[in-house]
Structure formats: C-alpha cells, structure tokens
Specification:
Layout (H helix, E strand, L loop, with lengths): L2 H20 L3 H7 L5 E6 L6 H5 L6 E6 L9 H13 L4 E7 L3 H7 L8 H13 L1 H5 L4 H21 L2 H10 L3 E8 L4 E4 L4 H12 L9 H7 L5
Parallel strand pairs: 1-2, 1-3, 3-4
Antiparallel strand pairs: 4-5
Helix pairs in contact: 5-6
Bound molecules: zinc ion.
Cofactor: Zn(2+)
GO molecular function, one term: carbonate dehydratase activity
Enzyme class: lyase
C-alpha cells in the first residue's frame, strides 16, 4: 500500500484527536443532526473544496460536486440533492460555484471528441451557444475562458430556478435564494457574480411558471416575509 494512501488514516486519527481536544462531545453532536443553511453545488476539481474555501465546519454546508458544476434537469443525482436540501434540510441559500481554470469548461471549448464526457460537456457547450455573440467578441482567449466559467455558473443558477419546487418554495416562504459564485483559483478569493435572483425568477416564470401560483407579485410577498440574507 502506498505511503500516501496510508497517510490518510493517520491524518484522520490526528483530526479526531484534535477535534476531541477542542470539544470532547464533538462527534456526539455531529452524529445527532445536520442543519446546514447552505447547499453548495461546485466542480469536482480537487483544488476547489467547498468547506475550506468557505471557512465552514462539517455540518454547515450540504455539498454536491460534478465536472463543471452542472445542474441538468434530467440528472437524477443533482435533482435529488437539491430536493433533499430544500425539502428536508430546508436550506436557505443555494450556491453554484464555478472556478477559473476549470478543466471541464476548457474541454467544452475544444473542438475535440471527449468520448463518454461529450454528453456531459454538451451542457457547457450549450452555454457557449447561448452566449456566443458575447464570447466570440472577446479576443483574449484567457478572458473568454474566464467569462465562459462565469456564464456557465449563471446558466446553472437559471436551471435551478426553473425547477418547480424552487419556484413553489420561494413563493411560499421567501427562500431558497440562488447565488452564483466563482472561485478564483489564482488568488484563492471567492467572487460573487451578484446574480439578480428575483429578476431571473420573474423573467423565467413568464415561460417556465410551473409553481401553480397565479400570484407572482414578489413585491407584495416581500412585505409579508422577512428579507433573507
Ligand atoms: Zn472544474
């Protein structure tokens, strides 16, 4: 067995020791319940770890990761994660977090056959097609690549907002709210893309209103409910 493999268990033992030193009941508490406020949907990239870059502890964020931080309506995996997070964990914030220098986005920009990955990468290629005018106008290749990372996050946020359960829950309780972030792997900093959730939701519901609600007056519903962070 390789040393790097064995080191994992040694690391784990040390981690348990340090946690118990800080709080002897740490694992008793952790075992009892999880009540995260955040659902984080990010890329599988090994350099982009949700808890570390957000500075949160186990129990504070529910996580889903795949190549290119994609939310596709026929992907049972991400759909189930979102459903579980909003229905049962009652998360208030859903974050889609992409990252610069994303291999998935880079592969989608290449005119190459990526075998089994092709169907998955098509989600990102579709984002390119949707925003082709803007992207093709960017001459600098790195800047175009960075912008596609951002637009991919934005479109995955839109895919979440298209989901009936998100629309229904927001109309009913004022959350969850969807946010788009990019992790800048070159500086370590998180960038909030400041996606206008309410404007996107209002626009989307003109076409994708699957909430069953006829009253989509968000301004009115806002008066009834406390503003979410
Ligand atoms: Zn990536």
């Amino acid at each position: 067995m390789s040393d790097s493999y064995k080191a994992i268990f040694e690391n784990n033992r040390k981690w348990v020791e340090s946690k118990l030193q800080q709080d002897p009941h740490y694992f008793d508490t952790l075992a009892r319940i999880q009540s995260p406020e955040f659902l984080y949907i990010g890329c599988s990239d090994s350099r982009v770890t949700a808890e570390e870059l957000m500075g949160v502890q186990p129990g504070e964020v529910f996580v889903h990761r795949n190549v290119g931080n994609i939310v596709n309506p026929i992907d049972m995996n991400s759909s189930s994660v979102i459903r579980y997070a909003v229905r049962y964990l009652k998360v208030k914030h859903i974050i889609v977090c992409g990252h610069y220098n994303c291999g998935g986005v880079a592969a989608a920009m290449e005119q190459q056959d990526h075998g089994a990955l092709n169907a998955w990468l098509r989600n990102i290629r579709d984002v390119y097609r949707l925003h082709r005018d803007e992207l093709d106008a960017i001459e600098d290749q790195q800047a175009r690549y960075d912008r596609l990372v951002e637009l991919n996050v934005q479109e995955q946020c839109v895919n979440i907002i298209k989901m009936a359960m998100i629309q229904k829950l927001y109309v009913k309780q004022g959350y969850p709210i969807v946010y788009g972030w990019v992790f800048d792997i070159r500086t370590g900093l998180l960038k909030d893309l400041e996606i206008d959730f309410k404007a996107i939701l209002s626009d989307i519901m003109k076409i994708y209103n699957v909430s069953g609600s006829k009253d989509l007056n968000f301004d009115k519903s806002e008066e009834d409910k406390p503003e979410e962070e």
